[in-house]
Design goal:
The protein is of the alpha+beta class. The chain has 4 helices and 8 strands. Strand 7 and strand 8 form a beta hairpin. It comes from Saccharomonospora piscinae.
Length: about 180
């Protein structure tokens, strides 16, 4: 210690150098080494970052036999823009009859919803794989409502996901649920 009570200059300099070396080492390792979750994942795919929280929305028919059938029939993976999206665990409390696939911008399926208010006799519908869908664009994603089955379901697809999830779920819906006439009431 010096007469002023401050540590010697050499000790302060050594501490500053050590701190700088440590900061550079951590930065280099962060760039060079993959994150821990990427190391254990097969084929370079990263594990999902944990359970996905979904906001509960009114789904009065989510406990129906039709929703149970659709959820059971849903695929374990979806193809999205050339990438395989695995099923994502949902956080508790889990909304009934809901599923998700993917990591950062997941694809989300919900079954048993109320009739979408955007569905009118003049709505523009898309038929994909024998299933009629009502697209409702949103910020960064489009929600596609199945409107010709005994229950309303919705598939929210991020804008960068491509058409794979919608095509695959069209096949699933067509196989799992019989078509019914459109209802606007």
């Amino acid at each position: 210690m010096s007469e002023t009570g401050a540590p010697p200059r050499s000790l302060v300099a050594a501490a500053a150098v050590l701190a700088a070396v440590l900061a550079v080492t951590v930065a280099v390792l962060g760039v060079v080494l993959p994150s821990g979750s990427d190391q254990d994942a097969p084929d370079g795919a990263a594990d999902p970052p944990g359970p996905l929280p979904l906001v509960s929305i009114p789904a009065p028919e989510s406990g129906s036999a039709e929703c149970a059938t659709l959820v059971r029939a849903a695929p374990g993976t979806l193809e999205s823009a050339g990438e395989q999206l695995g099923r994502r665990e949902l956080a508790q409390p889990t909304p009934p009859a809901a599923l998700a696939w993917g990591r950062d911008n997941p694809v989300v399926l919900r079954c048993g919803l109320q009739r979408p208010p955007e569905l009118t006799p003049t709505s523009t519908l898309r038929e994909i794989g024998g299933v009629r869908w009502l697209p409702v664009p949103g910020e960064g994603a489009t929600t596609w409502y199945v409107v010709d089955r005994g229950v309303y379901s919705a598939l929210t697809v991020p804008d960068d996901a491509g058409t794979g999830p919608l095509q695959q779920l069209s096949e699933t819906v067509a196989d799992a649920l019989p078509a019914v006439p459109l209802s606007f009431e």
